[in-house]
């Protein structure tokens, strides 16, 4: 579920009232090699954080926690300090001394990723509680969520919110709007078995209400339908099954996994293409697919794409930064592989090197501040966002949702 930050590009279309169509992602998730803003000392990565600062920070912290690394206190404090007074997170706030207002791009994906990371770390109930409260307040009548408040529901955003709800102990099926739950929204985005690409998930319906298969959305949808998050663990071993009428979230997940299995059967990876360019390997979404396949049917289901990632992803991760390393760590852990020796690469070491040095064992330098208490009041929930430039955001892995904390999974 490389929620990828292609979601940011999709959001741009949604914000201006256009039904979004999945956009191919570039290999580098950073919008620019030269950041347009200064990189804060507590932030992971050196690329421009304008459209992915909170996202990449959240994935980095969640991945570190999953392998038993205690993140630097300043890294955690930076993330909590990004929260708006109403509980939401924007993609990035360069000036947190200024209150969020109608122009602040409030982001359900960033908010949900932050919730998952902070819930895993523990000690941030006030922050995550306000964030979940905001997410509930912007739930759509179909039970789902879009990238921003008021935008049409999509499979990726709905799934990562499910992961956030599960991370704080909520029961997603009971979080309803207009009588609909998030699972209802996902089932509405699942392609029927009797048509082309049956079992896959669409990102959103097109202008005529039609559904088109999207591998990114399918990886996300599988985890969402299972009620799991970005750092999902392997599920019980299950043989691949044929597509069947999806009357339950579990069946929709099985159908989606069957579609992904077929999508990676030939080359071991998913593909993406930029307009006018040839298809190319999609590393981030392939990593998300590994997590989804393992979560739905056990590690063996993901063996082929995992092997491809081990052999080919080092260059992509080095170029793409912390979110990419985090996605690969999630893929390794979901399949029982060793993230410190992933195709010869120590993913944990590489991730740690992209930000502040982690804490020494037994030391807790985090101030554990409640960012909500520090945020200025008066934010406008229904902010109108201006995302010119978002279409240039590359592919970050919106790896996905959360099933349970992987405490105890020491590297």
How would you describe this protein?
With 411 residues, the chain is an all-alpha fold. It has 15 helices and 2 strands. The chain has helices at 6-15, 53-66, 73-80, 108-121, 125-137, 155-167, 182-187, 215-226, 249-264, 283-297, 303-312, 314-320, 322-334, 347-352, 371-374; strands spanning 270-272, 280-282. A two-stranded antiparallel ribbon has the order 1-2. Helix 2 runs parallel beside helix 13 and helix 6 (155-167) runs parallel beside helix 8. It is globular. The two termini are 24 Å apart. The relative contact order is 0.21.
Briefly summarize what is shown:
The protein has helices spanning 6-15, 53-66, 73-80, 108-121, 125-137, 155-167, 182-187, 215-226, 249-264, 283-297, 303-312, 314-320, 322-334, 347-352, 371-374; strands at residues 270-272, 280-282. The chain is mainly alpha-helical. A two-stranded antiparallel sheet has the order 1-2.
Please supply descriptive tags for the structure shown above:
1% strand; mainly alpha; two-stranded antiparallel sheet; 411 residues; disordered N terminus
Summarize the SSE layout with pairings:
Elements: H1 6-15, H2 53-66, H3 73-80, H4 108-121, H5 125-137, H6 155-167, H7 182-187, H8 215-226, H9 249-264, E1 270-272, E2 280-282, H10 283-297, H11 303-312, H12 314-320, H13 322-334, H14 347-352, H15 371-374
Antiparallel strand pairs: 1-2
Structural class: mainly alpha
Which ranges are low-confidence, i.e. pLDDT below 50, for 5 or more consecutive residues?
1-32, 366-411
Order of helices and strands: HHHHHHHHHEEHHHHHH
The count of strands amounts to: 2
Query: What spatial form do the alpha-carbon principal axes imply?
Result: globular
Strand content: under 5%
- Counted by DSSP, the helix tally is 15
Round the Cα radius of gyration to an integer and report it: 19 Å
Give the rounded overall mean pLDDT.
Answer: 85
Helix proportion range: 25-40%
The largest pleated sheet is described as:
2 strands, antiparallel
Can you list the strand order of the major beta sheet? Answer: 1-2
Ends apart, CA distance between termini: 24 Å
């Amino acid at each position: 579920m490389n929620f990828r930050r292609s979601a940011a590009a999709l959001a741009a279309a949604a914000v201006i009232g256009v039904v979004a169509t999945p956009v191919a992602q570039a290999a580098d998730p950073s919008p620019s090699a030269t950041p347009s803003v200064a990189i804060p000392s507590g932030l992971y990565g050196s690329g421009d954080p304008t459209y992915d600062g909170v996202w990449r920070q959240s994935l980095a912290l969640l991945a570190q926690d999953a392998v038993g690394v205690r993140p630097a206190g300043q890294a955690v404090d930076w993330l909590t300090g990004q929260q708006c007074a109403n509980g939401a997170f924007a993609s990035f706030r360069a000036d947190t001394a200024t209150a969020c207002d109608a122009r602040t791009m409030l982001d359900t994906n960033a908010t949900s990723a932050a919730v998952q990371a902070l819930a895993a770390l523990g000690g941030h109930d006030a922050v995550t509680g306000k964030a979940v409260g905001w997410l509930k307040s912007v739930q759509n009548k179909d039970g789902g969520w879009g990238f921003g408040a008021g935008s049409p529901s999509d499979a990726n955003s709905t799934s990562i919110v499910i992961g956030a709800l599960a991370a704080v102990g909520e029961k997603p099926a009971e979080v309803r709007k207009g009588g609909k739950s998030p699972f209802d929204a996902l089932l509405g985005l699942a392609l029927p078995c009797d048509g082309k690409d049956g079992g896959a998930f669409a990102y959103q319906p097109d202008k005529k209400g039609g559904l088109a298969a999207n591998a990114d959305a399918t990886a996300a949808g599988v985890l969402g339908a299972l009620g799991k998050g970005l750092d999902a663990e392997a599920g019980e071993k299950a043989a691949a099954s044929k597509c069947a009428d999806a009357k339950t979230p579990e069946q929709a997940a099985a159908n989606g996994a069957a579609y992904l299995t077929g999508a990676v059967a030939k080359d071991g990876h998913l593909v993406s293409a930029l307009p006018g360019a040839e298809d190319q390997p999609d590393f981030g979404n392939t990593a998300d697919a590994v997590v989804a396949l393992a979560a739905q049917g056990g590690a063996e289901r993901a063996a082929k794409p995992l092997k491809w990632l081990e052999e080919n992803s080092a260059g992509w991760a080095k170029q793409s930064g912390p979110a990419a390393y985090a996605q690969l760590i999630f893929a390794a852990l979901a399949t029982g592989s060793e993230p410190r020796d992933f195709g010869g690469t120590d993913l944990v070491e590489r991730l740690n090197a992209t930000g502040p040095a982690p804490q020494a064992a037994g030391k807790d330098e985090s101030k554990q501040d409640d960012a909500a208490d520090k945020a200025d009041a008066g934010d406008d929930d229904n902010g109108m966002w201006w995302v010119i430039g978002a279409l240039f955001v590359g592919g970050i892995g919106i790896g996905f949702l959360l099933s349970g904390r992987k405490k105890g999974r020491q590297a």
